[in-house]
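Archive transcription. Copying these from loose printouts into the bound notebook so they stop getting lost. Printout 1 of 2:
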Amino acid sequence: MSNLRWKKVQNFLEAHHFSAVNAAKISWWGLSRTYPLHVASKEGNFEVMLLLMKYGADPKQRDGRGKTAIAYTQLALRK
């Protein structure tokens, strides 16, 4: 089961062009950065969020706008 969970994380990282669980993706103009946990939060992908944290994603990490993934989760839940 653990291999399936890790594969799900790897697929998510690949699909969103991240190199690792805590790797930032920086915009082409260099002014904005985001992390896998933030993207999963914005998508409302709670299963992947939990898996990312299980594999070391930092829920306190702030993106280029100074927001944590939890802030995006709150926005996703309001939709």
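Printout 2 of 2:
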Amino acid sequence: MPLSPQLQVGYVARAHSLTGEVGIKLFDPGSEALDQVERVLLRPKDGGELIELRIDTVRDTPKELLVAFEGVENRTAAE
């Protein structure tokens, strides 16, 4: 099954907490794209295959969005 069109909205800047949240820097800080979707595709730093993750929560902060993904339960998994 081919993937539908994709829109790159930002990148994972860092693991944020012990509970597995990550800080995401958006290319457009005013974008609400992550508020509108249930799942995202992430490409690992090593350029490997895309990974599909379901968004659990999104929190806005002055510097970045803090996002928790289903199944990512700790900092090690987030990294």
